[in-house]
């Protein structure tokens, strides 16, 4: 009887925990995305966490919390488009300023004023789908992804690993990125101010390297044929056959190029 009672108690507790977890999800979106399309998440206050999806559907959930403000005033907007889908945390409009809006790319407008609502996104990304994650006050993390990934924040770290290309920047935080390809669409630029930069790159990397730090050191597993200034805080040169620019810059932190 004691075993049966304990089993019942455990089952009841599990059900209660599941119900509480479901109640905490303020937003959920699920939709199919194909290889080459992009899932873009735009946040302001809050972390973004990414993981591989188990199907061709992308899944996005968001949890809103606040101490003083009403979380219900912050809406989550979904904007489907030919290139994929953009999902934003949109805060209430601020009188006298341009209305907040959600749109693909880097041009969305969203002012928070004194609204202290935090929105935490969790996303599941299908194989071959690209991820663009943007926030201001929060970290960005994604492990074991299978498409190109791009992470941008201001106050927080960026930690991403993928079989595709990876890029990112922050101001107050570190960059830790691992990737299986290096054929970036544009110039590969990684930057922070207060934090280190660690890149894990394929052994076949070829790039024109420009790496700088003010308070830190530069380390590389890759042989570098120098073409300009070389010291412990600044290196200009080529890796492999050279070619695409690879720029890494920080002020307070180290720079590490590690071989996969």
Shape: globular
Q: What's the main sheet like?
A: 10 strands, mixed
pLDDT averaged over residues? 89
Helix fraction, binned, reads under 10%
Content of β-strand: over 45%
* Strand line-up in the sheet with most strands: 1-4-7-3-9-11-13-15-21-17
Number of strands: 21
Oligomer: single chain
Helix and strand sequence: HEEEEEEEEEEEEEEEEEEEEE
- Measure the end-to-end span: 56 Å
The tally of helices reads 1
Task: Provide the low-confidence segments as ranges.
Answer: 1-23
- Radius of gyration, in Å, reads 21 Å
Look at the helices and sheets and give the structural class: mainly beta
What does this structure look like?
The chain is mainly beta and 260 residues long. The protein has a domain at 24-147. The protein has one helix at 2-24, and strands spanning 27-32, 38-42, 48-52, 57-65, 75-81, 84-90, 118-125, 130-134, 140-145, 149-152, 158-162, 166-169, 175-179, 188-191, 197-201, 207-212, 218-220, 224-231, 234-239, 245-249, 255-259. The strands form three sheets. It has a ten-stranded mixed β-sheet, with no helix packed on it. The chain has a six-stranded mixed β-sheet with strand order 5-6-2-8-10-12, with no helix packed on it. It is globular. The termini are far apart. Mean pLDDT is 89; it is low at 1-23.
């Amino acid at each position: 009887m004691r075993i049966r009672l304990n089993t019942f108690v455990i089952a009841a507790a599990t059900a209660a925990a599941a119900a509480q977890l479901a109640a905490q999800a303020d937003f959920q979106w699920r939709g199919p995305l194909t290889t080459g399309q992009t899932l873009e998440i735009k946040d302001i206050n809050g972390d973004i966490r990414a993981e591989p999806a188990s199907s061709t559907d992308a899944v996005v959930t968001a949890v809103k919390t606040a101490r003083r403000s009403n979380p219900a005033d912050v809406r989550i907007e979904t904007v489907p488009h030919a290139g994929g889908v953009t999902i934003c945390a949109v805060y209430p409009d601020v009188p006298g300023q341009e209305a907040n809006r959600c749109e693909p790319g880097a041009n969305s407008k969203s002012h928070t004023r004194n609204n202290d609502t935090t929105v935490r996104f969790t996303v599941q990304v299908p194989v071959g789908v690209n991820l663009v994650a943007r926030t201001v006050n929060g970290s960005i993390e994604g492990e074991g992804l299978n498409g190109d990934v791009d992470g941008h924040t201001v106050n927080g770290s960026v930690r991403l690993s993928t079989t595709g290309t990876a890029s990112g920047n922050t101001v107050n935080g570190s960059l830790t990125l691992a990737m299986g390809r290096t054929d970036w669409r544009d110039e590969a630029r990684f930057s922070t101010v207060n934090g280190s930069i660690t890149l894990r790159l394929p052994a076949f990397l070829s790039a024109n390297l420009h790496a700088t730090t003010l308070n830190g050191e530069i380390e590389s597993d890759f042989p570098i044929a120098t073409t300009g200034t070389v010291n412990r805080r600044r290196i200009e040169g080529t890796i492999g056959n050279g070619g695409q620019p690879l720029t890494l810059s920080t002020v307070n932190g180290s720079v590490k190029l590690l071989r996969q």
